[in-house]
Predict the 3D structure of the following.
Amino acid sequence: MNVVVLSKFVPNPEGVPEMGDDFLLKREGVEGSLDPGDEFGVEAGLQLADTTGGEVTVVSMGPEAGATQAIRKALSMGAAKGVMISDPQLKGSDALVTAKVLAAAVQRAGFDVVIAGVESTDGYTGTLPMTLAELLGVPALTFAKHIENRDGTIVIQRQTETGYDVVEAPAPVVITVTAGANSPRYPTLKGIMQAKQKPVDQVTVSDLGLAEADTQPTQTVEAVNAAPEKAAGEVIEDDGNAASRIADLLAEAKVI
Amino acid sequence: MAKIWIYADVTGGKVNSGALELLTKARSIDGAEVAAVALGPGATDAAATLGEHGAATVYASDDAVYDDHLAQPAAHALKQLVDEHQPNLILFGLTYPSRDVAGRLQALTGSTLMSNASDLPSTDTAQTQIFGATKIVDVKLGGPDPKLVIFRPKSFPAEPSGGSANVVAVNAEIGDDLKKAKRTERHEEEATGPKLEDAAVVVSGGRGLQDASNFKLIEELAAAIGKAATGATRAIVDSGWVPYSYQVGQTGKTVKPSVYIAVGISGATQHLVGMKESKRIIAINKDPEAPIFKIADLGVVGDALKILPQLTEEVKKRKG
């Protein structure tokens, strides 16, 4: 099975995010990495390709430096090739624009299975893979915490609020993978060296046959305001009486 | 006059409480014509509750196709309803099924979709909170109707208005090509104690607990307090210490208990979004610089593994 894995470069999730004057998250010249959530997608893709004799193509959209870093990481884990979509026209793209661009890129690459993380660690929109599936006209198996291939039918355990469901669909299909679904492999030194030789196809919006109208975002930020701040509380060092202080507060709140 | 629709998730015959919160908000908007769409077994029965919370019309179908085949049938039925009735705005709760339906509907309608919204100042502006909810962003929703907005749970209170809904049966055409994804089994994890979203007290643990085996200290404290639920950060859920159903945060549950006790939790944005509206926040962390202390009513800098057993004993003692 040929698997396309979607990947995204995100600013360091542990860092303090910055916003530009245009109200857009700063994505260039910031420290970052392949979205940690996408590592689970890459791992799931590699496992699926390995057991079915296919290969993994990793697709990333975004400013060149970051997208390259995201793709390289996936290639060093074992993906066979990359597709990088970088185009100034795409700055500030919303989810619909991104879905259209990715759908065109995925179709161009050819796929049996498309794998994405459940949501990005920076934007958290969490609907793009489903929009993509609809644009591609294929079913989607979402929130997978376990994935299995049974003769071309993909069977997943789908995370629910109270447990999980077993859900299946024949390929071609889009799958979203939850964080924690597997243990992403670490790139080996050999993998890192090989990644530098693997092909990465660089494409623009026009290469994908999209019109300018397809890349117009439909959302604009009108204002950004500080949220009302909570009055600062008290911070104490534990001197052996902390438990008692906490219990006082619980009693005050009438929960004990 | 704005036509506002609420997509009501009816998994397993039960309406998601988010739909009732959104109806309460929608009916407060001047001149709004409010309707709900409920698809799947139990939808018609749910119409009464939806009506009580402000839906004048409920488009309903009890057809199991909507439950058995994930989002594709529902998104296409919704598209057919949209074409027929032309709503201006459709509001969704942040649930798994609703996210799937909203994402697909966006591809069908070509309209804007905003996720993680926290408020709706006007029918073409929605608000969201970013950077650990320290900033509020006003987003203008452009493009064609209907605008699609997904709201975080508990963004609004759910209050019945005493109204009742006119139920309109949905008879959408669902082709076999929309039934390729199929649910074959359901598994419920056994839950003990009160539900996280409803508990008066939530005791949550994070990486600072150092080891999965130490989560029992959290459980022991919750048991001693009583009426307390246990929660967790994404970090320890991803590490497999506790099941996903424990997760509080951006991904995971949103809680507003009367007391939230954060143990060994640094306070990453991901986590804060799910608990910062708690009435009282108590934090125990050994790092005095941990961001959690900025929102804590009482912060304790110290060793959680030492303090937890002491606190459990103290609570037991006081409760007699």
In short: Chain A touches chain B through 79 residues (CB under 8 Å).
